[in-house]
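If you are new to this repository, start here. Below is one unmodified record pulled from the training split, so you can see the exact layout before writing a loader.
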Amino acid sequence: MNKITNVERVEVIEPDETSIIDYLKKHPDLLERYPEVLKQLTFTHDSGAAISLVERQLKLIRDENQGMKNKLSSLVHIARENEELGQRFHRLTLELMAGDDLHDIIAMTRDQVQTFFYTDHVGFRFHDGLRDKLKGLEASIIDSDNKHSPRLRDWMAKRKPVFGPFDPGMHKQLFGEQGQIQSAVLIPLHHTRDFGLLVLGSRSRDRFADNMGTVFLTQLGELISAKICNFLS
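And here is the target side for that same chain:
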């Protein structure tokens, strides 16, 4: 007589990696309590050789320390640049405070910004509605008949720095025949009304890019606007 025995099969489910990692995080002393397991753990070095867990941890610590040193070095570099920028901005402020003539202020701005802020071209494009207040500066007034003038007035109204590159027609309107300008930014000048644009250009393609900060550029525009507002309001 044959006996039929019912055998209950139990399926063994192995824990997934996430569960193991979570458990180790909750019990960081696990490997200390089971040193024989710790001895069996090995990791592959960049050279391909096997290294121990301790060696692996030391390498991670060294890499983290190097990363922190690099970040610290970058922060120190930025701090020094900001300090230098602040000193140049202070010098420009003092120079502008001493100016009492619009033509002198514009000439001074061109000279100071080009010298202290490493800019190859510094120019102005004034709103055509200010023509009667800009005697002798007609070359810097936006030509109202030019097809690009509505766009320039729109940029003034938005009162935010505008980065190039610009199409050839706009480039000529801003820089004349200076084809060597590779990057540029337009800084709106305004007070109670729109005055125009401060035009900065560089032969370096990377000098003015739309991913750079605009705080300083905005402050530069506000500083110059505050000085010339009495002559143009």
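Two things worth knowing about this chain: The longest strand covers residues 194-202. The chain has a mean pLDDT of 81.
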